[in-house]
Amino acid sequence: MSGELSPIDKAKFVAAKRAAQFVEDGMRVGLGTGSTAAWLVRCLGEMVREDGLRIKGVPTSTRTAELARDVGIEVISLDEAKWLDLTIDGADEFDGDLNLIKGGGGALLQEKIVATASDQMVVIADIGKEVETLGAFPLPIEVIPFGWQTTQALVEETLISMDVLGRQSSLRMNGDRPFITDEGNHILDLHLNRIGNARQLALVLNQMPGVVENGLFIDICDAVVIGYGDGRVEVRDINEGTVATERLDFVETDNLFSDLSD
Fold it and tell me: Could you say which residues bind substrate here (predicted)?
C-alpha cells in the first residue's frame, strides 16, 4: 500500500506522527486545519483508541472538529478549555526564525486565536514549506464582507509603502461565489512574492478597518517538525536552539490511511 502514497504525503504523515509524540495524557490540545493537520488528528485518534490516550481537543475549524469526533477525540471549545497545553498545526510557509504564513485553508483567524492561547505551538510541515524569505505563498487576510472592495483598495494602497515585491490581491472564491470563513467573512489573498519585514506588515494590516486578522504568525511557533518523503523527520526547537534528525518506520495501516482525501 505504501506505493499508493506520494512522497509529499509520506512526508506529511511522518511529520504528523512525530509531532504526536509531543502530546501527553491529560493535555488540552489545539488541533490545526489542513491536509497535514488531518494526518495529525488521525494519528492522535489512533493513540486514543489503541493506547488509551486521554486528551481534549480544541479544533480550529468545523472541518477539523468533524474529523476529530470521527476518530474518537473528545472535542471541546476554547472557552471550555480556557488555555491549552499545546497546539499542533500545519503551515503554508515557514522561515529560519519559524515565522509562518498560514491560512491557505481559510481558517487563519481561529488558528491564530488557538495558537496564541497555548503554552506551546508546534508546526508540522513537509520540507517543501521551508523558505528563505516569506511571501512566495499568497498571504491571506480575513476581511468582513461589508465594504470588502474598499478594504481591498486600502490594503493595496498601503502595500506601496511596505517592503514587498508584489501588491496585487484577489478575493478567494469557492466556485462562482466568494469563499466564506467559519466566522462568515471573506479572504483576500495578497500576492506579495517576497515580504521583507513580516513583523511590520502584520502590524500595519491589522490596524486597517475591515481587516479582521492576517495570516502572518510572528513569534508564535516554538518548534517545527519537518517531514521527508523517505521517512526522515527533523525537529527544530527555536527556544532550545536545537535541531534533531531521526527516521520513523513508515507502515501504512488500513484503519489510519483509509478515507484520507484532504
Answer: 33-36, 89-92, 102-105, 129
